[in-house]
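Thread title: Can someone regenerate the structure for this chain?

I was given the following input by a collaborator and told the matching structure tokens would be attached. They weren't. Posting the sequence so someone can regenerate them.
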Amino acid sequence: MSGLVSRVLILIGFGLCFVGTATRAAADDAVTIGTDWRAEASHGGIYEAQAAGIYKKYHLNVTIVQGGPNLNQAQLLAAGHYDFIVSSNSFEPLNFVQNNVPIVVVAAGFQKDPQVLIAHKGAGNDSLEAMKGKPIMISSDARPSYWQFLRVKFGFSDDQIRPYNYSLQPFIVDKKAIVQGYLTDEPYAIELASSEKPVTILLADHGYKSYAEFIATTQANIDTKSDVVQRFVTATMEGWKEYLHGDPTGANDLMKKDNPEMTDAILTHSRAGIIAGGLVESGDAKKHGIGTMTDSRWKQFADFAIGAGIFPKDIDYKKAYTLRFLSKKTVAAP
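Best answer:
Regenerated them for you:
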């Protein structure tokens, strides 16, 4: 064997060793996220990042576990079964702080909470002021959350509360009824079931400052896997941008697979509601990017929640969130 051939073979061998080492170094990090409900358009950014290969681009091997009425995703996260969860509203992270649960939110998928109150047209319930003193069907989870906002700001009282078990039939048959819902879900379900387009009032447009669809993780993950957290936040926000401004078909197909109750029509309508309602791209997100949060807005919400007597005055609300992964890494909104 000539000296030149020997050197070439040696160099090729070193090259193969280098490629093998690089491949091992670039192995995707396995990540599991639990959502706050069954797969729906409110999780569109997560499913889009999966379908479009955005997570793969950031060397993440992501498993999405959909939530449901009998799953405590926060408990599973705290126990180490998940790496991230979707947290529904700003009350939840403050509850984590109050109960010494080391879960921290790292991005806000929604700038606006999609919580709505729904009424029939022509029933005289076209505003929150008009609904004061009238029976309203709400879930048990609503009592310590957005109901407190309605109580403090609009004078609602607990004797108005009627139970809501996620069936819309009682609302449909009672033309004086008022029911809670999500902008992306119940209004369209009512329209499909009754051919009526109901009055829909988005609480976020009336002073309700809760963020929604948070990405949350544990303090331990922030301390020991900050690079993974950063990549997951960045990829998910890219997923949201693509879901809202690109072709959502891939994400929708994955959501329909996870949740067969979803249809193309429901997902299309819900996505349109997210866009029209400015749930993702409004307020601070227009300037600072999708997923952004601010200290000032968190303070506003904490001041309200403390003033309403929901949390003690000495709660360290800043433990509920971190802006560390948002400053230069979120995706600029168009």
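The first strand starts at residue 29 and ends at 34.
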